[in-house]
Amino acid sequence: MSRITRAGLIGAGRIAQAHAAGIQAAGVELVGIVASTPLRSREAASRLGAGRAYGSVAELLADPEIQVIHIVTPTAAHFAQASQAIAAGKHIVCEKPLTTTSADAARLVTQAATAGVVGTVAFTYRYQPVVQETKARLRDGELGGLTSIRGGYLQDWLLTAPASEWRLDPDRAGFSRATADLGSHLFDLVEFVCADRFARVAASVLQAVGGTGRTDSADDAVGIVLETTAGVPCSLAVSQVAPGHVNSLTLEVSGVRAAFGIDIERTDGLSIATPGSVRIVPADELGRGVALAGFTPQGGTLDLISGFSAFIQHSYAAMGGEPVEGLPTLADGLRAVMACEAVRRAAVSGAWVELDGRRSV
């Protein structure tokens, strides 16, 4: 086994801070960073504690000391940068969505497998103790059979976003906005927790909300109905124009005996409903979830930070040759991109759209 000790970072946007902190929390050296300009590279290297600023992506990838590359650039740049990193023999940790098309995502999956490198995608909500607890309880049969799934991911930042925001530029963000940015997390969360896959989807899309001054055709809010390969109905709501919602990610899975409710913004634990009653299992009593996530819940933002660090540590363990259960891989990134494309096709056609319906292992 070869332990990961040195990492490089491509990109210097907001999420770069979380990746840099996670790299350092794992005891790995952040060798260097490259951003959109030499000046920004130098500023980011100083701000994020990187050893050096590189003049280009090619220069960073040519550094033989770097074993893994973190890609935190706008989505449209992911495919080329990830492909170049894999070709250079580097492991990759990529922000979601993995790519703007499923064809490109599939190419990365194949390329990484051929090259023998590990690629992971930052679906970091998998590492929240309430998520791990729900997955474990569902696997152990506590629901008595899954009957329905309901979820949502709501934010409001798009209502006041500046024109310079890269997610407003289809050339940088791709054809999808809210579905790709938020829905990709939600799609992965449902398939991960339920150990089932989406089989088909119907959707409606709200484009370019009035008052924002935009005329592009990307989605701002989406209503989605899905069916899993096991025949379970699922309804999801995704919006970046929902006033009062900063980062509201929720998921409820219901069965014949109980329902489990996840709310990432809550600090008090997991909601468990049975006929006639609802109780909260406190965060510090989430035994299975805590064991699987690998850290003690503290609530809110602290758990999000710890979950991000746990994801990076698990990624590095897999890159070092250790078996890691539940790690979000390039194949999971491909699944999410496929779902985003299906949502778009369903909204345009007004008809159900089939996905690859093979059941998850």
Explain the overall architecture:
The structure is a single chain. By secondary structure, the protein is of the alpha/beta class. The chain has two domains: 6-124, Rossmann fold; 126-295 and 328-354, Dihydrodipicolinate Reductase, domain 2. Helices cover 36% and strands 24% of the residues. The protein has helices at residues 16-25, 38-48, 57-61, 78-87, 102-115, 129-139, 170-173, 178-194, 287-293, 300-319, 330-349; strands spanning 6-10, 29-34, 52-53, 68-71, 91-94, 119-121, 146-154, 198-207, 219-228, 233-239, 248-255, 259-263, 269-274, 277-282, 353-354. α2 links the parallel β2 (29-34) and β3. α4 (78-87) runs parallel beside α5, α5 packs antiparallel against α11 (330-349) and α6 crosses α8. It is globular and about 60 Å long. The protein starts with 5 loop residues before the first strand and ends in a 7-residue tail after the last strand.
Measured distance between first and last alpha carbons = 26 Å
SSE ordering = EHEHEHEHEHEHEHHEEEEEEEHHHE
Topology, number of strands: 15
Q: Please name the CATH architecture of the largest domain.
A: 2-Layer Sandwich
Percent strand equals 15-25%
Radius of gyration: 20 Å
Q: How many helix segments?
A: 11
CATH class of the largest domain: Alpha Beta
Helical coverage, percent range: 25-40%
Under CATH, the topology of the largest domain is which? Dihydrodipicolinate Reductase, domain 2
Q: How would you classify the helix and strand content by structural class?
A: alpha/beta
The structural domain count equals: 2
Query: Regions with pLDDT < 50 over 5+ consecutive residues?
Result: 357-361
Q: Name the CATH superfamily classification of the largest domain.
A: Dihydrodipicolinate Reductase, domain 2
Strand order of the largest sheet: 14-13-12-11-7-10-9-8-15
Quick check: average pLDDT?
A: 91
What's the overall geometry? Answer: globular
Q: Please summarize the sheet with the most strands.
A: 9 strands, mixed
